[in-house]
Amino acid sequence: MNDSIYRLRQLCVRHAGSRPDTPCVLKDLDLDVARGEQIVIIGPSGAGKTTLLSALALAHQPDAGSFEAFGGRPWQLTSSERHALRRRIFLAPQAPPLPPRQRVVTAVLAGKLPQWSLWQAIKSLVYPRQAVLAYAALEVFNLGEKLFARVDRLSGGERQRVSLARLLVADAEVLLVDEPLSALDPRLARHTLARLQQEAARRGATLICSLHQIELAHAQFARIIGMRDGRLQFDCPRAEVTQAMLATLYAGTDEEAFGVEQPEVEIADARCR
Amino acid sequence: MNSLKSRLPMPAAADGSGRFRDPAWRRRLSWTLLGLVLAWPLLVATQFKPWQLFDATSLDATLKFLATFLPPALQPGFLLEILKAAWITIAIATAGLSLALLLAIPLTLIATTRLSISRIGRARMNALPFVIRQCARWVLVILRSVPELVFALLFVRIVGLGPTAGVLALTLAYAGLAAKVFAEIIESNEGEAAEALLQNGAGRLQALLYGVLPGCATELVSYTVYRWECAIRGSVIMGMVGAGGLGQQLDTSMKMLNGGEVATILTVFVALVALADVLSARLRRTMA
Hints:
The complex is a heterodimer of chains A (about 270) and B (about 290).
Chain A: E1 4-13, E2 26-34, E3 38-42, H1 49-56, E4 64-69, H2 79-86, E5 89-92, H3 104-109, H4 118-126, H5 131-140, H6 156-169, E6 174-178, H7 186-202, E7 206-210, H8 214-220, E8 223-228, E9 231-237, H9 243-250, H10 253-257
Parallel strand pairs in A: 3-7, 3-8, 5-6, 6-7
Antiparallel strand pairs in A: 1-2, 1-4, 8-9
Chain B: H1 2-7, H2 25-45, H3 56-67, H4 76-111, H5 127-145, H6 148-159, H7 163-188, H8 192-199, H9 204-243, H10 246-255, H11 259-287
Helix pairs in contact in B: 4-5, 4-7, 4-9, 4-10, 4-11, 5-7, 6-7, 6-9, 7-9, 8-9, 9-10, 9-11, 10-11
């Protein structure tokens, strides 16, 4: 079995539907991901983290460069072959995509849909097929008692964890998680991230996660990718990420956001691989 | 206002740069003016002269006809006939709408772009699904462009006078209307839920059941009940061309200038529409 999950070379991605002469959101991106790796992506807002995750999820076609996933080129397959590949990947978007009037049990079990037939999906709407599975996934994030609650009765942080529980019931080999901790308090964030990583490791799944909590990212992930302006600023093992590199990654962004004049930042090429 | 000023540093607004002028203002203004200019010839073309309603002769004729409405006809034999006719009207509306939904639901699913899989991650969908989707949209346009009355006249010739013509006419006309509005309800709802399911490898109908319907089932149901209300009205109009039900009764009474009977029949209409209204409100409350 091939251990390479992703192989990206000189990848360029534009916003969907934009003209070919507009600049790329992701530029000259090289990235290799092996099976079972746990990677965190950090970087200032607007750096392209979400676009990268959605490109990895086969939800965004690259405009140039080479994109290989699972040893093949998904964008040269037919639409239905590519859709079959999407079952092996699970992308949890930043805003939990849960219908407000749905019950938690249904929202979590929706993660099983790629494995279910249409008939099984209909039966599960009549009577939940694997409520125990949904409960187990919710319990990982201490939410078991919300099994039959409605999504619109949940707090923002609870919704975020329900969305992660959905990720756990899906039988995906690649878990892509976009800022899973944005609505959680620091203690809960630490706990939730630890559980997510444990579960990914237990099933041998690859986990790629974007985070804004730099300390947590640095403490929990063996491989850290720094993104800025659509480029990989660095892609290093934890030990080689220095405070200086982190400072450079975010340098000038707060002044920029508030329109203060700033000195030109010299960005060192700190690429580890 | 003063307290706000003291708390927030205000930029000098009157520096003449126009930085704080609403950039959309000019466009909004010109579209409004254009709309008004275009409306004028429409009023001329439709000979819109509302004051004619209030001149002495037409006011006199109206009042005379309205005066015959009282008292409403309440003879037991006539009431029984009206109830039978009302039942036929309800049956035409319900049967016509049910058949229309059988046609409309698949057409909706074909027409909406929300559930396209080949579109994910790309600027446009594949050629074949695009062509199929366009064909479905054209079928809907054709179904909608023919008024149900014309369909009814057509079917009266094919299947003869009676309720069947009305049912078939409603089926075709309302399939087009319902499918268009269903597709638009689905598309105007927030799409993230269905989008996420599709992106993670779910099928189209699965995404519909788990991502689309939870968000817009209430709107779809209340629009369907509204269509039922329209079908009642529609079957009345078609009754006038011989498709049975209350419409035929109304036509007869109007031709005989029997105001009392007309008043009774109109009261039954009001009751039916009120029923649809209550039903819709109940359904919305239970589904909310």
